């Protein structure tokens, strides 16, 4: 998957090595985003967000990616097919559910 920080250049190509297959983030090697410049997933406007989300929709590790972003409270970029705003809403919904269950 992409990195947790926006890249320096919108034209940069994702040349990062694949993650260690034994690491908890080994799923990242299967991400469709590896075929796109990292900047694609750190868009500056709504059109860019929708473009990134469309790529995520066909990704085989979309669920792992979203949970990773939620678990690590990653604030920037599109992860797991969800925008920054959508992830904040998911986390808020989970907090409310957890409070209601107690
Ligand atoms: S869901 Fe999107 S951001 Fe996550 S690994 Fe797949 S393509 Fe990359």
Describe the structure using short key phrases.
globular; binds iron/sulfur cluster; mainly alpha; 102 residues; 39% helix
Query: What gap, in angstroms, lies between the N and C termini?
Result: 35 Å
What's the number of structural domains?
A: 1
What ligands can be seen in this structure? Answer: iron/sulfur cluster
**Fraction of residues in β-strands:** under 5%
Shape: globular
Output the helix-strand order. Answer: HHH
The biggest beta sheet, please? none
Unreliable spans are 5-10
State the assembly state of the protein chains: single chain
pLDDT averaged residue by residue = 89
- Helical segment tally? 3
What structural class should be given to the helix and strand makeup? mainly alpha
How large is the radius of gyration?
14 Å
What is the tally of beta strands?
0
Helix content: 25-40%
Describe what this molecule looks like in 3D.
The protein has 102 residues and is mostly helical. The protein has one domain (26-101). It contains three helices and no strands. The chain has helices spanning 46-57, 62-71, 84-101. The protein starts with 45 loop residues before the first helix and ends with a helix. The chain binds iron/sulfur cluster (SF4). Iron/sulfur cluster binds next to helix 1 and helix 2.
